[in-house]
Amino acid sequence: MNFELTILGTGSASPQLDRNPSAFLVSLDTDLILIDCGEGTQYRLLEHKIKHNRIRHILISHLHGDHYFGLIGLLSSLNLSHRTEPLTLIGPPGLSEILSVQFEHSGTDIAFDIQFIETRPDEPTLILDHPRFTIETLPLAHRIPCNGYLIREKVSKRKIRKELLPENFPVPYIKQLVEGHDVTDDRTGEVFKVEHFTFPSLPARSFAYCSDTKYLPELVPLLHGVDLLYHEATFDDALEDRAAKTFHSTARQAAKIAASAKVGQLVIGHYSSRYKSLESHAAQAQSVFPATRLAEEGLVIPIGQIRP
Amino acid sequence: MNFELTILGTGSASPQLDRNPSAFLVSLDTDLILIDCGEGTQYRLLEHKIKHNRIRHILISHLHGDHYFGLIGLLSSLNLSHRTEPLTLIGPPGLSEILSVQFEHSGTDIAFDIQFIETRPDEPTLILDHPRFTIETLPLAHRIPCNGYLIREKVSKRKIRKELLPENFPVPYIKQLVEGHDVTDDRTGEVFKVEHFTFPSLPARSFAYCSDTKYLPELVPLLHGVDLLYHEATFDDALEDRAAKTFHSTARQAAKIAASAKVGQLVIGHYSSRYKSLESHAAQAQSVFPATRLAEEGLVIPIGQIRP
């Protein structure tokens, strides 16, 4: 299954011409999950030729404008384009009221089904259990209620080695093997061992999204071993005090979280508009966690091992 | 006094990469009036290097998203940039609620003064009487309450011809002449005629903004003689039925209004995304009203006669 991250916005609250506000696409097979939706996100989708009808889930981390001001426009455009596919919208308390007030005053009837799931930003929750993946919330510490998201593939099934099985081997037995149970043939008493008759399942991959938050070591156990971590890095070392004061993180702090949680790869973004160059961000983070990448507009990063 | 229109958006509801949603700047001397504020307008201001702190008035025509989804982002950015100048915001019922719900959930305290003036979209109203100009609302006929705006310079004073006056001519007498009254000198009985001792005042200039509306001949008397009329022209002749059904206008209908109202110049915009070329819009409008221009992104048009 295809599993990758596309970065649509690397900026923070102050508008910048060369950096868009937060928006991230996770593609899982043919479906897309959009995480955060700053102003103009629908135009980024057009630029990258991404069909917005493929978006089945939208997750909003918190109600600062650089993370959600583009949502009302995107939903209105989905409606204008005669969408029929349902949409799951996950976000904090208040989001539903913000949208419904605007739909009401604009006389908009949304013709597709929106399932709204309200987060409880202060506790980690399994918020969505999809046949192919789960979405958990990650409590963050920001100036207003805010949570990150952790998307995990479900463990894939073992792959059967058909060529080793007898002909007309019963389908229920195949199912048992694929699910990891040894089989004893009722008719013959013969035992078929999982290890012999199947290939092992591939490890489930995972992506975690942490924006916006102050440096928060409590995240480490929740992030343990994720394949790809996006963590905000609004500031560099020189502005560590300002990071603490505004409930943001530095690039080094993001890297510390990544190192302690033993993640596979870290990508940092949400850069303050004061930084024209990001060399200090890169150097400071990589000195702590070498597998750090800088987020760039339009960058696509595979999550975990690439699968056929 | 400088008086000109800058066009920041020529598109309509469906998002288009080469046309932005509605936003128009009227500059009056050093102050700016922003009319409508579609998604991304604050980025257009950055692109055109327009200092958003010069915006003193924002006028919203109606609550369809392509006319106001950028407002919350612009106001938030004004606040982030430590604005202190007060702002007058004029818009339809509902706008104030939409903004306050979002300020509340984002924990935003707007630190500058916003004076909100609610329009009554169904009747023409003198909504703002400024020392240098007036703003009137123009009732339009759209699917939801909607009004246009008419901005008129105040009549400028007559210019005194000092070189013709006797020395030590009393200041109160000068004031009378400038205001258009003949003067009789109390001391000598001499009469000073306005026509001889002053140059005539320049005619007051005016700009009218009509978007979105169906073809509405009732506008003609309200628009009589304005120097520049912006009128929406979502469709061309071939889609006149669709225009009527969706409460929009064709280019030809906009031109009919302009011709009947004897305006100085017409500019049309708010183009449906289906039109790649605008040749039919231009040809059909100009066949009725030759002084028609097509709106283009970034186009600047002087309003009325240019003044020193």
What brief labels describe this structure?
Metallo-beta-lactamase, Chain A; 2 domains; 308 residues; seven-stranded mixed β-sheet; 18 strands; homodimer; alpha/beta
Short description:
Chain A has 308 residues and is of the alpha/beta class. Chain A has helices spanning 41-47, 71-80, 95-105, 171-178, 194-197, 220-223, 240-246, 251-260, 279-288; strands spanning 3-9, 23-28, 31-37, 55-59, 87-91, 114-118, 126-129, 133-139, 147-153, 159-160, 183-184, 191-192, 198-199, 206-210, 228-232, 265-269, 292-294, 300-302.
Characterise the protein shown here.
Two copies of one chain form a homodimer. Chain A is of the alpha/beta class and 308 residues long. Chain A has two domains: 3-156 and 205-302, Ribonuclease Z/Hydroxyacylglutathione hydrolase-like (Metallo-beta-lactamase, Chain A, 4-Layer Sandwich); 159-198, no CATH class. Chain A is 23% helix and 27% strand. Chain A contains nine helices and 18 strands. The first copy, chain A, has helices at 41-47, 71-80, 95-105, 171-178, 194-197, 220-223, 240-246, 251-260, 279-288, and strands at 3-9, 23-28, 31-37, 55-59, 87-91, 114-118, 126-129, 133-139, 147-153, 159-160, 183-184, 191-192, 198-199, 206-210, 228-232, 265-269, 292-294, 300-302. Chain A has a seven-stranded mixed sheet with strand order 6-5-4-3-2-1-18, covered by helices on one side. In chain A, strands 7-8-9-14-15-16-17 form a seven-stranded mixed sheet, covered by helices on one side. In chain A, helix 8 packs parallel to helix 9 (279-288). The longest helix of chain A has 11 residues, at 95-105. Chain A starts with a strand and ends in a 6-residue tail after the last strand. The mean pLDDT of chain A is 95. The A-B interface holds A 13-17, 39-40, 42-43, 46-47, 63-65, 69-70, 72-73, 76-77, 80-81, 94-95, 97-98, 101-102, 104-107, 143-144 and B 13-17, 39-40, 42-43, 46-47, 63-65, 69-70, 72-73, 76-77, 80-81, 94-95, 97-98, 101-102, 104-107, 143-144.
